[in-house]
Amino acid sequence: MISKAEERNKLMYSIFLIVMLLIFNYANYAGWRVFNTDEVEHTEAGKSHNNRTRFYHK
Amino acid sequence: MVEIAVQSHIIPLPNQLTCTHCNSKVTNVLHRTALAYACMHCKSYYVGEKGLGYKFVHSFNEVFTPDLPLNTKGVLFGVTYEIVGFAVRSQLGAGYAWREYTLFNLYEGFATLTEFNGHWIFARPMQNYPNLSPSGFSDILQYEGKSYQKYNKYKSTVKYAAGEFGYDIFSDKKKVFVEWISPPYMLIREKDDDELIWCKGVGINANEVKDAFKISSLPEREGIGALQLMPVSANVSFLLTSTFVFILILLVGQYVIKSPAEEKKIFDHSYSKTNVDSSGVIVTNNFEVTGGKTALQFNVYAPLTNDWFDLNFELINEATGERFEGAKSLEFYSGTDSEGAWSEGTRQDYIIISSVPPGRYHLNLYPTWNSNSSVYVSFGIEIIQGVSLWANFTLFFLLGIIIPVIQVFRMYAFEQKRWLGSDFSPKLTIWNL
After folding, report:
1. Residue ranges per domain, chain B?
2. Contact A43/B322, CB-based, under 8 Å?
3. pLDDT at residue B18, rounded to an integer
4. What ipTM does this complex have?
């Protein structure tokens, strides 16, 4: 019982580390800065026109 | 904390033991192995003598009520035990007392269930004794692959007893008890001039005791028990090893796994106030982001002298209309005072826009200057694609070490509390947690 709980904790921690490694490597591959305070806003095409008047488009 | 061995004394025994002081009956579960019994009604204690029956030897001064009633049956570790005896013991020279329940199974023999401050230990005699140094007082014992640390050494006295016992409970007063722990296990050595007994104990949860003996309430747990396991625990060497491997893989990933976009400068241009149109915008030439999704680093430069400069910009994909907004403020001031030259701020800085898909882009720049600035004041902007994101490495590194760091602090605090009750507290370090 006791060792099972510790084994479960080890397994959970290992899974946590593996998931983090997967996210990290994907982020590096996709050029994704996971916590990016530099980026003010990202608007996908056609989803927002609220500020169109503020900006000039070619 | 005592484990008792089955004695082989042969004494005449009835099915019930009768207290000669108050005539109360004590159920005789142990039959010929009941070497002593105590009346729970009048505090009288009797010891059997070979061929002579039981002889009154002691009367206890006070009465304690057992939390587990005598003659209750329960299953612990797959064995049905009956509670045949109850004793309250205290350490000689110390004020605290613990309660011991003597358990009996016809085939398995005796076991002891001990409760102190709501912490329970189940103990049985050992068949194979650990190897001790000649002095017999090693601080560390190796047994069955585990390292046991000395926890306590004491003599005990009996304050109260009720029920049957396989030995004279007062014969223990000359015994020296030494305990070594490797939670949740404990090795107990009991030795006097005549006898050496080793027992192995294991800490068990009060709920297991409740379930085993169908008891609704037991004493609340206080403090950290000698054999208590830390909730949500993990082996420190496992934590440290796995975290080390994690950081190693992070480093390898940082250098090996990169965006398909080659690291190169894709835009570099300088502008001045004169380039700004009537709506306050500078629309740049277009440029190409190649390879795959990538992070772009925007290096912004302005040759400021006691001045500031703000730049808002919009990166627009000319094919899809997808846009990314960013902003950077620069300020640089310098001068001299009584302590000499000083300066603050910077003339150049960068920002990162991440996950930018490949394609043709242009920038809409929205620069803002101090109104007093010259019309010829300029600024520069360059863009590099495929940059390494060390911010990701830092973030995941911190996430990776936060659990081991918290866990080590928790374990350190937990072990310190555990060893408060011991005179043999080891010097706790991260390596012996």
Report:
1. 15-213, 236-255+389-401, 264-385
2. yes
3. 78
4. 0.76
